[in-house]
Amino acid sequence: MSLTQQAIAPGILVSAARRSPRDRRRDPEWLWAIAFALPYAAVFLALVLYPIGYGLWLGSEPALYVELFGSPIYLTAVANTLIYVCISVNLKMALAFVLSGFFMRRRWWIKALLVIFILPWATPSLPAFMSIHWMLNGHWGLINSALLALFDIDGPIWLIDRWLGMGANIAATIWKQLPFWTVIFLAGRMAIPQELFEAAEVDGAGRWHRFRHITFPLMANLYIVSTLLSTIWTLGEFNAVNFVSGGGPSMSTEVLATIGVRYAFTLARPPLGVAAVLSSLPLLIPVVALLIYRLRKSSVQL
Questions:
Q1: By CB neighbour count within 10 A (0-12 exposed, 13-18 middle, 19+ buried), where does 126 fall?
Q2: In angstroms, how far apart are the furthest CA atoms of the chain?
């Protein structure tokens, strides 16, 4: 930088700092920044803030919740939601954690098997769940036909019993989402430095001790965060229940997500449907708060 530039630059900085807010607003760079930000702000307002605000306004009438809590169908949906979320999330995450250890093995056929294993997650949800629904047909479905052909057993009519229907919904959800979480845990295992395992093996630590003192502590936070995130997603799951059991028989396998849609569109009562969905907030908000806390804690540790 020349002497003239060194002499002028501080003056320019001082004059820029002393400019009034009105002068800064007339700056072309400031105007360009506003022009680029306005479309994003409009999209956020139209697609995020407005739908949320409108939904809260629709479900703000206390009489809606009095009607909901007095309905046995709604209470059944609440119980089904808790069963559906607790069993599917915990079983799915435990299986994903175990399978991630299996896929860590360095054999070519395991890598090929991993590619096939990921296919259910890559399959579109609608045709996948509809296929499972027809496979469970009690008269000519694939499962009962296979039982009859291979073992000469007449299979049950799966979707006319509440608990068989709930089991089908849970199994379909686990089948669809298990590959995704297995890959997440597999990536977490691969991020652990191999030098730790090598040093532990030199010290005489067995496979169980290496898992207990290395893998489990380093994977614990990822497991908790993934479980919380999976809980949020499963709480709003609609496709599995709607297309596998259809909420039947007699709406006995409905969950909050499906009963909210049924109230809003089938019965043409949108406020009641929104109220049914909003009633899950007492469970959803603590899970989201805990998820944010775990993410902030992990970022501080990094």
A1: exposed
A2: 98
Helix boundaries (H) for the chain = 3-18, 21-25, 28-44, 50-58, 62-69, 72-102, 108-122, 125-135, 142-151, 162-190, 194-202, 207-210, 216-235, 239-240, 256-261, 270-278, 281-301
Distance CA 204, CA 82 (A): 45
Q: Name the residue among 254, 253, 259 with its Cα closest to residue 275.
A: 259
CA 255 – CA 239 distance, rounded (Å) = 11
CA atoms of 254 and 238, how far apart (whole Å) = 10
With tokens 């290395």, the residue in question is 214
* pTM strictly above 0.90: no
- DSSP-derived secondary structure letter, 267: S
The first and second tokens of residue 229, run together, are 């995130």
Distance CA 260, CA 258 (A): 5
Q: Are 86 and 235 spatial neighbours (Cβ–Cβ below 8 Å)?
A: no
CA–CA dist 302, 300 (Å, integer): 5
Alpha carbons 163 and 174: distance in angstroms, whole number:
16
Indicate the CATH number for domain 62-301: 1.10.3720.10
Give one DSSP letter per residue of 97-140, joined into a string: HHHHHHTTS--HHHHHHHHHHHHHHHS-HHHHHHHHHHHT-TTT
Taking the chain (302 residues) in runs of 10, the rounded mean pLDDT of each run is 45 48 61 83 87 85 89 93 96 95 88 90 90 88 87 86 94 95 94 86 82 88 94 92 91 93 89 90 90 80 56
Q: Write out the DSSP string of 236-260.
A: T--HHIIIIITT-STTTT--HHHHH
Count other Cβ atoms within 10 Å, centred on residue 119: 10
- For the chain, domain boundaries: 19-58, 62-301
